[in-house]
Amino acid sequence: MPREYSQRAALVTGGARGIGEAIAALLAERGYRIAIADREAKSGRATAARIGAPFIRCDVAREADVRACVGQVVRRFGRLDALVNNAGIADPASGPVERLSLAQWNRRIGANLTGMFLMAKHAAAHLRRARGAIVNIASTPPLLAA
User: Fold this and answer.
1) Rounded to the nearest 5°, which phi and psi values hold at 68?
2) Angle at alpha carbon of residue 129, lines to 86 and 17, rounded to 5°
3) What is the residue-level pLDDT of the chain in tens, covering all 146 positions?
4) Exposure of 36 by Cβ count < 10 A (0-12 exposed, 13-18 middle, 19+ buried)?
5) How many angstroms separate the CA atoms of 108 and 113, rounded?
6) pTM of the full structure
């Protein structure tokens, strides 16, 4: 493990599966201390156990959850060097935009946009001290799909 990474800490949202899991695993391989945050406790705990990282149940659309999550990471590791905002909702099963309910739309906005804002807001001071970075990831199926 490269020495320059040996004490760095990263928080990966949406880290229970998929791209977030892969990012968490790669950062762990590179020597980062990782915390995995996700709404899905069962898969989040399983992934965290495989990687050897703590799991924090967090709904990124809820400010209280985000504040607590960032606080737990900083208390555990003493610092935060990287925030990977990967949590989001992109469910092609919801169909085209005309079938998407307002509640479904608002949930997506909360997870996909507000979550990134809240995580950045509560992590910014810690990242600034560590001269760290934020990586925002976004993807979505087309809303006009048939």
Assistant:
1) -65, -40
2) 15
3) 444 455 899 999 999 999 999 999 999 999 999 999 999 999 999 999 999 999 999 999 999 999 999 999 999 999 999 999 999 988 777 778 888 899 999 999 999 999 999 999 999 999 999 999 999 998 766 555 54
4) buried
5) 8
6) 0.90
